[in-house]
Amino acid sequence: MTMRRLSRDEVHGLATRTLQAVGYGPRHVQAIADMLTTCQMDDCQSHGLFRLFMCAETTRTGRVDPQADPALTLDDSAVVRADAGGAISLLAVQAAMPHLVDRAKRFGVAALAVTRCYHFSALWPEVEQLTGHGLSALSMTPSHAWVAPAGGTRGALGTNPISFGWPRNGDPFVFDFATSAFARGEIELYRRENKPLPEGVALDANGQPTTDPEAAMDGAMCTFGSYKGSALSLMVELMAGPLIGDLTSLDSMAYAEGRPEAPYHGQILLAFDPDRLSGGAVADSDARAERLFAEIGGQGARLPSERRYAARARNAARGYVEISETLYQDLLALSS
Amino acid sequence: MTMRRLSRDEVHGLATRTLQAVGYGPRHVQAIADMLTTCQMDDCQSHGLFRLFMCAETTRTGRVDPQADPALTLDDSAVVRADAGGAISLLAVQAAMPHLVDRAKRFGVAALAVTRCYHFSALWPEVEQLTGHGLSALSMTPSHAWVAPAGGTRGALGTNPISFGWPRNGDPFVFDFATSAFARGEIELYRRENKPLPEGVALDANGQPTTDPEAAMDGAMCTFGSYKGSALSLMVELMAGPLIGDLTSLDSMAYAEGRPEAPYHGQILLAFDPDRLSGGAVADSDARAERLFAEIGGQGARLPSERRYAARARNAARGYVEISETLYQDLLALSS
């Protein structure tokens, strides 16, 4: 495969020009291009430049508002509400983030409810950003009802990612994973390569377990971790949906009416101030957390995100990332 | 097996007399007896009267303080801190609960950090109690380092339960599960019955996968859901340990120095006000959540806790629970 090298500026520029060309307003262009660049520089291919196709598709269907300014509701509580007004989520999160940080430091714990947004992005960059303020953070979002509950027969839950972060000197502890057993894109890859799926990953259209990726695309995915994973996925639905006054994955899928746009729903971000919560014992707490990380590393086990941080360091040192020439040409075509 | 019928009052009385006999102060007796009764009335055998043995053992080792009054730290933030002072956790939670509810309603989100407590109880009764105030709730606690991280070879994580609740008319949505693949008690049951464990549940003392329950007791348990479950377990360690200025499961195990007492560490409870978080759209939110529950039930899948609620209804209607005569006699012996 022929690869093309792109510097950070070239990645950001390509994203910017494409987003401008498909109609996003300047503030959205900046917020989305920043996010795609952050992901691409970590070799997070699925949430990097590749997502420009979805950004373009979502404007072509004509339902996303590519210009809407987010409307923040700020009061004297620990809750910040950011109404994205039918736009992509990222600008709303960006606009609300300083207020979330402020309230987490003031109240010890705070919540950001982002509502009425089209959502396609990884959660870890926002969680990592909060750790940069010395905060621990938790974020969740639903998607479309592609995932069957444990013991069920058809989609009712989203892929429902959970992302958590803990501040450290240097790279923070961060994980971000779907509560589905597989990502939907992974099943597509198996289909393209004509490979059978592992057991326990998917159901066919009749609700029966299947290893046929074609049948799985017409059926439903399973959650990871059986009943426990299914319960967690339902928690994501409730906390990032009804709790913040927004849609579940079932609602979101119904709303899309089969259009190939990004799912439309909400996102919750929680921020925790270790200083307030520990009663000022942050130094002791950091030492305890570091002993645990050291024990895990000492066993030869990896912490989540280690591979991503390694890619980040390598790409920063050499000054470029690589994407396939085919992807690059397809992206150029998007903006022409 | 000969069974004995006990009314709610008899369950509570038996717990009360036993706890008094082994030296707990009156406020602790009431808080612990209430919790054990709540669990026993739901046929939650592992966390009901059976736990009196651990309560007795933990006082015999002489390190729990069976009299200490909890010390609350209340300020103008959304964080309530309850220092249990080396006692069992339950009285501290009970004393702090009204303040947690107050702050959740005032700030939209609030946290209770319970610290320096011996902990042996299920998390769902406290989470369910918060749903009774119209709040959503999340609780976590570490334990002892019996569980290996994914890719690791020995215990570094606790069984680390997560409990979540969502208020409904009637029985709330509540789950409470360990992030270990098996509960430690389950492995003991397999050992007693000389049955091989399922694959993927445990490691032996050399860090190799094993299905031998004897070898597993000398080794470590695995987390549920592989790398994802392991990441969640680590989140529980951080949020219910260092974040609130208390011990990890590694620290707790070191602190116990091999004594057979309950683990000593902290617990975090988060409470969320759907009214504040949804911007006053609770009626819509409830309807969305109920549509999702109905879809899951309509597929023939169970919601967590359904079996427990069925036991509760049956025991309430007939006015008694059943425990084995052997357990009953052993419990009587505890207080004589």
Automatic annotation (TrEMBL), chains A, B:
InterPro entries: Mal/L-sulf/L-lact_DH-like_ah, Mal/L-sulf/L-lact_DH-like_NADP, Mal/L-sulfo/L-lacto_DH-like_sf, Malate/L-lactate_DH-like. It comes from the Bacteria. GO terms for molecular function: oxidoreductase activity. SUPFAM superfamilies: L-sulfolactate dehydrogenase-like. Keywords: Oxidoreductase. Belongs to the LDH2/MDH2 oxidoreductase family. This is LDH2 family malate/lactate/ureidoglycolate dehydrogenase. It comes from Sagittula marina.
